Amino acid sequence: MQSYLFLQPFFANKRILVVVSASVALYKILELLSTLNKLGAQTRVVMSEKSAEFINPLLFEVMSKNNVLSESLQNWQSADSPNHISYAKWAQVVLVAPASANTIAKFACGIADNIALCTLLASSAPKIFAPAMNTIMLQAPQTQANLKTLIKLGARVVESKEGLLACGDRGQGALADLQEILYALLSVFLQNDYRELAEFWGGQSSQKEEDSQKDEALQKEVIISSGGSKEALDSVRILSNLSSGKQAHFLALALFALGAKVCVVGSNFLPFLPKGVECIEAQTTQEYKEGILHARKACQQKPYLFMVAALADFKPKQVSAKKLKKETLPEVFELELEKNIDVLESLSPEDFIKIGFKAESEEAHALEYAKKMLVKKSLQAVCLNVLDSHNAFGSENNKMMLLSACDMKQTPLLSKFALSLEIAQFVKERIL
Question: Is 167 a catalytic residue?
Fold first, then answer.
């Protein structure tokens, strides 16, 4: 199971109101509530009478550690009593999951004929809908029109996935993975807590519901190279390195959550990458360059290129089409290498806003090398990583020296996700 503890600082004490509608998929929300509690969030649940027929509300009370609000439990004795107004005011974000076709249709029209819809309509907090229903119901023109209405009203919609549905059919309409719902919540929190950063990367002008749509002309397009290249020695062996790709993937998640359009070019893709991030596979250094150029063609504006991948400086001069047999090789096997293409240097600054990443094992001359890289490769910034026992390849945490032409910043040791936000902030401030 994927660990989401790196999100804990961003979910701690956030007030999340979960509205569940009548759907078989609502049992999956129990795991979501458990995860949110582990991340330090506060949760409350509202259930319509129909949804309570699917599952005992007591389970939601146990997982949320709060009273489940329903028609029969509304209390108006004080301003803090559980009722649809107090719960609506309490929420920092409202998550409707699972969202049935009926709930989506009624909220799109402003109908409030049950406790869940009353609470939704009474809340000014950002809203997220995670639909779950039969494929034909989801694809019906009315449902699609209602989903578009929700988006125009400022709500976010977490797309359902394809799978085996409760009715026995297989198709689109299954509740989105827990991870995608978490990321939708994360995006709301980041775009509120890091508002200026979200405005820069995502074109997000405001968190007010009626003005929360992205301005695509301001939305930044980002290409991130990830992992390590793999240069063939023969048909089964490769020359590679220890780069895990974690920092690149956390950077992709951070920029995506801030609202940027993100593409990752890499040799491996980690499971926590959001579905909305485009992925282009590359193995050799040449394939990385081709993948980056392919991604560039799809961009509507000059993209930001974060060259995080560790690409081979040298590659075998001769590659055997068959596996080299150990029995036929001498005791000392000499391998002739030739210099590889420098992808970052070869890409024109006219086509990319280039940010380089540099790893050094010795601190003495690391900064000097990074400054030379900044000039030689026409970079806007360099993220320097001096490897040690705390931030070796594959570690969960990292610290970096961030350099631009005019200044530099040393970060503390942070989770790679938190460090990604530091990088995003540094680039925003230095590249305008």
Answer: yes
**HSE-CB of 49 using CA atoms within 13 angstroms:** 7
User: Comparing C-alpha atoms, which of 261, 418, 420 is closest to residue 355?
Assistant: 420
Q: Which of 167, 263, 299, 383 is catalytic?
A: 167
294-339 per-position pLDDT tens digit: 999 999 999 999 999 999 999 999 999 999 998 888 889 888 999 9
Contact 240, 231 (CB under 8 A): yes
Residue from 313, 252, 261 nearest 285 by CA: 313
| pLDDT value at 389 more than 70 | no
Q: How far apart are CA 405 and CA 374, in angstroms?
A: 8
Place 432 in a pLDDT band, splitting at 50, 70 and 90.
low
d(CA 243, CA 309): 8
